[in-house]
Design goal:
By secondary structure, this protein is mainly α. Helices cover 85% and strands 0% of the residues.
Length: 451
């Protein structure tokens, strides 16, 4: 046991050191999301359902953009791992160019989704509210992509504190803005759901500005004094796009299973859609914690990969899996014990509370597989392996999870709760496929190091 502890302790410490600021920022962001939903829930069930529909739609371009941006971290991590400071300077310029162009594309996608909202067979009474709210929050995709450029670059340089500071500052602004604009406090107009959207947009603009100011101060980026030409920067743009597209599709495929589930629940009832939004907010808490460990894992794996030390890569991978399984146990226990109380934080509607408490049981089951696949996908990301994982993700969700959810709800007779049953099935398959992929790449890395 002592030998085992000595072997893995350095990996536990280093991974958690990198992950802790990410987790703090994620928890802060989740807290704001929960507060948003709690405040909106006080306006009524219709407003909560309208916010759920708009947020679900906005998640489509947002999740793709987040996944696309993640390509910056392993590329920067490999350059940082071998002290290629000139390369980092080029990656910095390429990252902001790439994400700026992607922000324009995603803005056009948001516009198309806005026009299509009335055609998505949602309850008629939520459409006007959803369209107005969506038109506001969709403007935040541009500042968000600017922020993500700096965030992922900083993480590649083993600096996870910058994004934490910026995110926590923006969270405070968002909460204060919600209090002012939703209910009309401190002389501000009571704008209801639109007030929540304006507050979110303001906070995200602040995030972009702060990140642009902070990123210039990172010491690894100051170790190079060379000028990076546009032509050379576009070389890094190509690298980011090549890796970012499959990474974006990977995250999009996973998120879309939950998004499509929200649409299908909306076909059934407004009550189910409100309960779905509540439990999705709760599930995000666990997801973001595991993502924090995943971010630390990607950073370490990318740097070990650049140094060509496959044994340390395997040890770091196993350590991350061990950390996250402990987290799963603690979080699952809390969800089970508090499943009847947690929904009451969002609404007083008895039907919504009862439905949400049932969905929490399914949440506890699927988050075990979710945590495992998050760590495996982070390992693969650190190895700059994106295309095959993207295909495996598409199979897991579009071929297995979504069809199973539809069958369980509309044919199997499980109705609203049946839609959630597809999640543990899809995530379980995805975790298993990723396991085999990671083991294969570890084996190849070991064989290469012996040549």
């Amino acid at each position: 046991m002592k030998r085992y502890w000595r072997l893995f302790r350095p990996h536990y410490v280093e991974t958690q050191k990198l992950a802790l600021p990410v987790i703090i920022a994620q928890v802060g962001q989740i807290t704001v999301g929960l507060v948003d939903n709690m405040m909106i829930g006080q306006l009524g069930k219709t407003e909560l359902a309208a916010a759920a529909f708009a947020n679900t739609l906005f998640a489509l371009p947002l999740i793709f953009g987040m996944g696309f941006s993640m390509a910056i971290t392993p590329i920067a991590g490999k350059a940082f791992g071998i002290s290629d400071f000139n390369g980092l300077k080029g990656i910095q310029k390429g990252a902001f160019i790439t994400n700026g162009l992607m922000a324009i594309v995603l803005s056009l996608v948001c516009w198309g989704l806005y026009l299509a909202m009335p055609l998505m067979q949602q309850p008629d009474n939520i459409i006007p509210l959803s369209k107005s709210f969506f038109s506001i929050i969709s403007l935040s995709i541009i500042p968000l992509m600017i922020f993500l450029s700096g965030k992922q670059l900083a993480e590649g340089l083993s600096n996870t504190k910058v994004a934490m500071i910026v995110t926590l500052l923006a969270n405070v602004v968002n909460i204060v803005g919600n209090y002012m604009l939703i209910f009309g406090h401190w002389g501000a107009p009571a704008m209801g759901l639109d007030g929540a959207g304006i507050s979110t947009l303001t906070a995200r603009v602040l995030m972009a500005i702060c990140m642009l100011l902070f990123i210039k101060r990172l010491s690894p980026l100051q170790n190079s004094t060379i000028k990076i030409s546009i032509n050379k920067a576009f070389g890094y743009v190509r690298d980011i796009v090549k890796l970012g597209i499959p990474m974006g599709l990977h995250m999009f495929a996973e998120a879309s299973a939950f998004i499509v589930a929200g649409f299908m629940i909306g076909w059934i009832s407004e009550t189910g859609l409100a309960a779905h939004q509540i439990v999705m907010s709760l599930s995000t808490f666990g997801f973001m914690l595991y993502q924090g460990i995943g971010a630390g894992t990607t950073i370490r794996i990318s740097q070990f990969s650049a140094r060509q030390v496959p044994l340390l890569m395997r040890q770091a991978s196993n350590a991350s899996l061990q950390i996250v399984m402990v987290m799963v146990f603690v979080i699952s226990l809390a969800f089970i014990l508090l499943r009847n109380w947690l929904p009451q934080l969002f609404t007083n509607d008895a039907e919504v509370i009862a439905m949400a408490s049932q969905m929490i049981i399914v949440l506890v089951i699927f988050q075990v597989f979710d945590a495992i696949q998050i760590i495996y996908s982070s390992i693969l990301r650190g190895m700059a392996d994106a295309t095959i994982p993207g295909i495996l993700t598409l199979i897991s969700y579009f071929v297995i999870a979504i069809p199973f959810s539809y069958w369980a709800a509309f044919i199997g007779g499980y109705h609203k709760i049946g839609i959630w049953l597809g999640f543990p099935v899809g995530l379980g398959v995805c975790a298993l496929l990723f396991h085999f992929r990671v083991q294969l790449l570890h084996k190849k890395a070991m064989q290469s190091s012996m040549v």
